[in-house]
Amino acid sequence: YTYDKEIEQYYLMARYYEPEQGVFTAVDPDPGDEDDPQTMNGYNYASNNPVMLADPDGLWAGVLFKFAAKGGKTAWKYAKKGAKKVSKSMKKWWKGFKAKPKKRQETKQTNSQLKSFDSDKRKHITEPEHQWNSVSDGSWGQVQALIKRTMRSGKESSYKKSARKKTLIYNKRKIIVTFVRKDGKIKIGNAWVERK
Known about the structure:
Pfam families: Ntox35. Residues 118-193 form the Bacterial toxin domain. Residues 98-122 are annotated as: Disordered. InterPro entries: Ntox35 (IPR029109), Rhs_assc_core (IPR022385), T6SS_VgrG/RHS (IPR050708). The chain is of the alpha+beta class. It has 2 domains: 2-96, no CATH class; 100-193. Helices cover 34% and strands 25% of the residues. It contains 5 helices and 10 strands. It has helices at residues 65-68, 72-97, 101-116, 119-125, 140-153, and strands spanning 2-4, 9-12, 15-18, 23-24, 53-54, 62-63, 155-159, 163-170, 173-182, 185-193. Strands 1-2-3-4 form a 4-stranded antiparallel sheet. A 4-stranded antiparallel sheet has the order 7-8-9-10. A hairpin with a 2-residue loop joins β9 (173-182) and β10. It is elongated and about 60 Å long.
């Protein structure tokens, strides 16, 4: 990111961030998650609470209680660090946006597939034994975002007889998503975080 002294805002790859108000001045290209309406606000950063929260990877806002105890200076320092990470997330997003048509098609299929999951499938994937609380708060919105990330950026390999899997290391934990490709379409079977 870079700081523009003339307009007193941070430029984070595709958008300007106004630190006093804690919002971006242009709409976020990621539409957000309908299960977590706060993510659908195209202008906010860290759930519109940049003093107490940071959103270093662009997925969800995290509480800064330990930093708040050290005072505003430390919190601001962390917020600037988080802004750098947002910049990295934007680079990754842009890289994905420019991906080959096949990869874009797979991303669309993954998104469509996740939206079509009924409550039983969601409940199964978010069961405690699947360890999602080790990398998120365990909510469907955050789990879904991590599944999307794994399907988009994970390493693909075979899984059992005719299935495939993608794995992604996230926060020092391995996320696994199993799926099959049939008639050119992806069907997700299961997803979990590998036990340590």
